[in-house]
Design a protein that fits this description.
Oligomer: heterodimer
Order of helices and strands of chain B: HEHHEEHEHHEHHHHHHH
Structural class of chain A: alpha+beta
Shape of chain A: globular
Number of strands of chain B: 5
CATH topology of the largest domain in chain A: Cytochrome-c3 Hydrogenase, chain B
Helix content of chain A: 40-55%
Strand content of chain B: 5-15%
Distance between the termini of chain A: 9 Å
Shape of chain B: globular
CATH topology of the largest domain in chain B: Rossmann fold
CATH architecture of the largest domain in chain B: 3-Layer(aba) Sandwich
Helix content of chain B: 25-40%
Radius of gyration of chain B: 20 Å
Order of helices and strands of chain A: EEEHHHHHHEEHEEHEEHHHEEEHHHE
Structural class of chain B: alpha/beta
Strand content of chain A: 15-25%
CATH class of the largest domain in chain A: Mainly Alpha
Chain lengths: 429, 264
Amino acid sequence: MTHKSVRLGRLSRVEGEAALLVRAHDGRITDLQLNIYEPPRFFEALLRGRSYDEPPDITARICGICPVAYQMSACQAVEAACGVEVTGPLRDLRLLLYYGEWIESHTLHVFLLHAPDFLGYDSGMALAADHRGLMERALELKKAGNELVATLGGRAIHPVNVRLGGFYRVPRPQELAPVAERLRRAREHALTAAAWVSGFDFPDVEFDYRFMALRHTDEYAILSGCPTVSDGTVFPVQEWPAHVVEEQVAHSTAVHARLDGAGGYLVGALARYAINSDRLSPLARTVAREAGLGPVCRNPFRSIVVRAVEIVHACDEALRLIDGYTEPDAPAVPVEPVASIGHGASEAPRGTLYHRYRLDEDGLIAEADIVPPTSQNQARIEADLREFIEPRLDLPHAELAAWCERSIRNHDPCISCSTHFLDLRVEAR
Amino acid sequence: MTSTDRNDRPRLAVWKFASCDGCQLTLLDCEDELLPLASTLDIAYFLEASSAVGPGPYDLSLVEGSITTPQDAEHIRHVRRVSRRLVTIGACATAGGIQALRDFADVREFASVVYARPEYIATLERSTPISAHVPVDFELRGCPIDKRQLIEVITAFLAGRRPVVPGHSVCVECKIRGNICVLVAHGTPCLGPVTQAGCGALCPAFNRGCYGCFGPTETPNTPALNTKLRRLGVSDPDLVRVYRTFNATEEPFRQASEEAEGDA
C-alpha cells in the first residue's frame, strides 16, 4: 500500500495565482482540487448603479492581459440591450483591435510562458540567454500586436478609445501604414514560430474533450458568433443562461461552469480550432497542416501549436483588414439606453467570454453577469490533471510537480480573470 | 545572500496582490528594453514570467495590487521585510483600485451578489493601498502605469536617484502634445485639469475627456472643475460616478464625489 503526497508552491508562468492539491492512495488519485485564491474583486456587484456606457472601461480592469476581450463582450452585450448592432467598417476596426490583442497575448503565452516548458528553461528570459535572436523576433512579434492595439486604442493595456457604438476617434489610413509594415514582418516571425513549436517533443496523450467555441458564418470567430458545442449543440448568445450555469466551489473564489448539465467542457484555442479550423485564413490552414495538426487536436500540450497558428491567422487577417480599410463616416453609431437585457460573447485569447447586463429606465445597470473562460475551463483542467497524473504518480516528486504545472499551463489559465496563486500540494496517504 | 556574492546585478522582485496583472505585464511589454533589462538586473522573483524563485532579500520590489484579504495584509509585511526598496505600481497598489468601490458600499452585500456561498469568501471591508500597511519608497500611478515611467523608475533606482515623474496635470501634457482642449473647444467633460500627468494626454488625443486613471494631481481644484462640469450639463449622480472609478479613495477625488453626492 503506497501513500503519496506532493506539495508544490505557487504556480509560475500563469496569469494570476492559485493552488493545487492532489491526494493519492494506492496509485489512485483520491482528491484533486485546483484552488484559486485570487482575492475577489466583486465586479458584478460594483457595476450595479453605474451608467450603461461604463462597462467597457470598468470590465477592462478585470484582466490586464485581455482587456480588449472584456471591452468587446461588454460593448456587444450593452448594445444588444439597446437594440444596436455595430456593422461594416466599425466592426472591422473592432476586429482589427481584437487581432492585435490576440497577437500580443498569444505571443506572450507561446514564447514567455509555455515554450520554456518544452526546452527546460525557467523563463523566457532564461531561454533568451541561449536563443537571443529567436526571442528578439518573438518580442518583435509581440510588439507588433501591442502597437496595433495602441494605434487603435491609445495604449496596449486598458485601451481608452473603445466606446459603445464604436470608437471615440477612428484612425486615418496613413496611421495604419506603419502598423501594416510591422505586421508583415510579424507574420514572417509567426510562420517561423509555428514551424519551431511544431517540432517540440509532445507527450503522446489525447483527451476526449467536449469543446465549446463561438462559430461565425464566415469568420474564424473572434468578435462574435453562436456558441457551438462539439456534440452538435448550437445556441444563440441570448440563450446562454439556459445552457451555461455557474456554481461556486468551496475550495475556490472562482466558480465552475456547467454546460447543459455537465461540467468539464473546454473553451480556448483547442476548442476554437476543433470547431472552426475550416474558417482559418488559407495561409493559417496551410501552416496548421504543415505543423501536423489534423482537423481536431485533442493533445493539450500541442495547444502551443494551435496558438501559433492563430497568431498567423491574426496577422494575416489584420493585414487584410488594413489593406481594405476606408475611414468610416462617423467614429461611432449612437447608442441610447433601453430598459432591457443584453447578452454579448466574444473569443478572448483564453476562450469564450460572456457578459450580460440588465439596464433600468434611468440607463443604469441593474444587474451584471460575467462568465470568463477560466471558470469554464477549471473543471476540465482538473480532469486533465487526473487523467495525466494518475499513471505517473510513481515519478520522482519534482518531475511529477512539473507535469502538474505543465498540465495547467497548457490551457493558459487567466486566474486574474476568474478570480491568484497556484500552490500545488500532492498529498498521498 | 546579498546581491554582491551571487553576482553584481541588483535583484528585482515583482509581487501581486488584488489586481488585473496589467501593471506587471507592463514590464513584459517593454519589448525593446526587456532583454537588456534582464542582463542588467537579476529578475529574482517574478512568478508571472519565471519559475525560478531566488531567495530574498531583494534590492527592488515592484508591488502591484491592493490589500483586500487578511492573508495579503500579512504577506505585504513579509514583502517589505525582504525588500530594500519597495515601489508600488498602479492604481490598485497606490490607491486601492476599482475594487475600492466596496469602501462606498457593504462588502458583505457585494459578496452575496457575486457568490452563492459568500461564507467561503474571506475578504476585508475595504480595499487599501500598500502605503496603508507598510512604508513605501515610491508610488507610480496609473491604471495601468505608463511604460516609459516604469523604465524611468527602474533606471532611477539603478542610478541611485529619485525618479523624475511630473506632478502636474494632464492639461500640461495636452499643451505639450498640441491637443485641442476637448473641455473648452468641444464641451466634453474632462478630468484632465485635476488628474496627474503621465499617460501623455491619451484620452484627449482620441477626442475623449480624461477619466482620471492616474489619480489626482498635487493641487487639484475640483470645486472649480465641478462648477464647469455642471455648467456643461453633468448631473450630480454622474459627477459622483466620474470621480469613483480607479482612484476613488484618493482624498481629493473622494471629497469631490462626496460633495456631489451631498448635492444629489
